Amino acid sequence: MENSKAAPLLAARASLPKFRADAVAFCDRVASLGGEVGALVRSGRSPTLAPLAVFIDRLIGIAKRAKVLPSTPSRRSNRQTDSPPAFYSFVITALRVARQVIKTSQLPDDQITAALSKLQYQDRDALIEIVVQARGRIGNYRETPHGLVEWDVTDPDV
What we know:
This protein is mainly α and 158 residues long. Helix content is 54%, strand content 5%. It has one domain. The radius of gyration is 18 Å and the shape is globular.
């Protein structure tokens, strides 16, 4: 991390040794979870990697607390002219930072490769689908004083 382009920015906002320790602990948890889930995977269509789904779920939680809808670009939108929603840009940036943290970590090369593989997705549409599956229907979100919450609109008591 000390050698990355983001080091001055990180050092200005956080304690680098603590941030490094937190990042290593996070990567270790992702690797552990990946190993557990990997044992459950059967042949067939490639499933979404659980660590990536968990990562996206955490980002959705951050967005809810910040009262930002976890919106994604429409798959029918003009990719050249339409700017992506703020949340989707946040996801792309968070994934880029996570990969950079992993690449600059002091983990052995095989663990770095394994950790990076857990944050892979096929293409833009696949990432949008992962986000959509994790967040549910945008129409079910309601603003509260503590952030956004999902309401089950099929529940007659709501």
